Every structure is written in C-alpha cells, then in structure tokens.
Amino acid sequence: MSARIWGLSLGGLLCGLLVTLWVAGDLLSRPAAREVGPPPQELGAQTVSLSTVPGQHVVGWFARGESQGAVLLLHGVRGDRRQMTERALFLQQAGDATLQIDLPAHGESSGERITFGAREAAGVEAAVRFLRQTLPGVQIAVIGVSLGAASTVLAGLDPALQAVILESMYPTIDEAVQDRLAMRLGRVGAGLAPLLLWQLPLRVGLSAEALRPIDRLPSLGAPVLIASGADDQHTLWPETQRLFDAAKEPKVLWRVEGAAHVDLHDHAPEPYRQRVLEFLAQHLRGGAAQTAH
C-alpha cells in the first residue's frame, strides 16, 4: 500500500475518532430531563419547586420528620430523585426529615447541560437554603451519590453542614474521563481523554480546573463518610483513598467489597443502613443509632 493511501486511511481514522468523541461529548453533557410525577404514597412527601438562579429551578420531594435532623438526598448522573427513595424511607423511619431533588438538568429540574457538579451545585445550595428556612434550627446532612456527591463538595456550603456522606465520587474530571475511556478502550483510550476534556469550555463554559472535588474537600467543614465500591472502575479505589486522605477529621472510609459503580444501598442494603444510621446518629443527632425496619 502506498504512503498516500496509508496517509488517507490514517486521516480517515482520525477524523472518525474526532467525530465520535465530539458526539460522545454532546451525549455526556446532554440534559437528562424526564417526567418524574408525584411522590410515592409511602413517602408522605410534598412536591416542591425551589429557585436556584434567576429563571432556573429544581424540583423535589420534601417530607417532614420527628427529630431535629434533616437529610438532603442527591442522585447520580442521568438519574432523578426517585433513585433516593429507599434511602428516604429508612431515614424517615429514624425520624429525619428528607428532601430529594432532581439536580439541575435532570428529571423535572431546569438546566441546559449536565456540568458534572459545577452548576448542579446551585441546586444543592437551593435545597439546603430551603431546609434552613422551612425547619429553623434543624441539623442538616447530605447524602450524595456520584454526581450528587461532587455537586455537594463543589457547592462550598456556608455555614457548614452537620454531616456529609459521599458515595462513588470522582476526585478530578480528568481522572473521571480517563477511567471511563480506559474501561471501554483500554490504556489507549485513557490517552484520548484530552480530546473530550477540551470540549468542556465549548459545551458548558467550564474548564477542567473547575471540576476538582478533591481540591475542595478539605474545606467541606463537616464530618464526612466516604464510600465506594472495591471493584468500581469509574472511580478506582486508589482515587477514593486519595479523596479520604484529603478530607479533614472526623472522617470515615467504607470500602464496599464486591461493588462496582453501582447503587451502594441496593448492593448491600443492611450494611448500608447500619453504617449510615450510625454515622448520622453520631454527627447529626448526637445520640444512639436507631434501627430502620
């Protein structure tokens, strides 16, 4: 085969790769809007719409509790508030108020693009503000899954929360992209990460430097439980260990054996509930853990 043909073939492959990555970038940041509907009857919740920035809002389910604790529940990427219903139910049994929201650009909340935690942070801020105004003097905790975890850390809430549980959170967007490409294309795929990352300013008006939860974690200002699956390939265990090392005391690390990048509650319901209730009993309610039935 002549050098010219080789060159044309290689050029065609590169063009095809660039087009594929461009399309992938669009799909990854495209909003995950969908109708969610009313809350399940067993939640005993009401639907609320909370203003974030002018012209934008997040929608959620709010249920009052019997204790002085309230827990904000934040789903993962491309999910919605229904993902957190089982958590809300066992927390309500422990007496806590709960608020589940659709993060910006998800479910019934407004938003033009998924921004991997940066602008989703405005939804977290609006939800915490709602809890403080609706339940004066309440002690507030957050449980965030993946995107929900990153959004919590990037929100930089002040005053600080009483307790935070971060599940399956990426340390930096660079590593998150590399890990996902490596899963699909091997080591060569990880080297293609810059071709996706350079799209961030074009797609969502952000740089990769704005998406480094590990840098913001030390200023979280609340006791933190960091949990991730031992077999998670989206966020590798050494990356989770680095997150834990970056967090300030008091902190707890939970390595969930046998779990990949999955819903940790669904993977191990009883151990999950026990650990979460014990952590919240110590840092949110200041008493003994209650058992969820």
What does this structure look like?
- It is built from eleven helices and ten strands.
- The protein has two domains: 1-30 and 173-210, no CATH class; 39-172 and 212-285, Rossmann fold.
- The termini are far apart.
- Strand 7, helix 4 (147-155) and strand 8 (163-167) form a beta-alpha-beta unit.
- 42% of the residues lie in helices and 18% in strands.
- Helix 3 crosses helix 4.
- The strands form two sheets. An eight-stranded mixed β-sheet has the order 2-3-5-4-7-8-9-10, sandwiched between helices. It has a two-stranded parallel ribbon with strand order 1-6.
- By secondary structure, the chain is of the alpha/beta class.
- The strand order across the widest sheet is 2-3-5-4-7-8-9-10
Shape: globular
Number of domains: 2
Can you count the helices? 11
CATH class of the largest domain: Alpha Beta
Keywords: Hydrolase
Pfam families: Hydrolase_4 (PF12146)
GO molecular function, one term: hydrolase activity
InterPro entries: AB_hydrolase_fold (IPR029058), DNA-binding_regulatory (IPR052920), Hydrolase_4 (IPR022742)
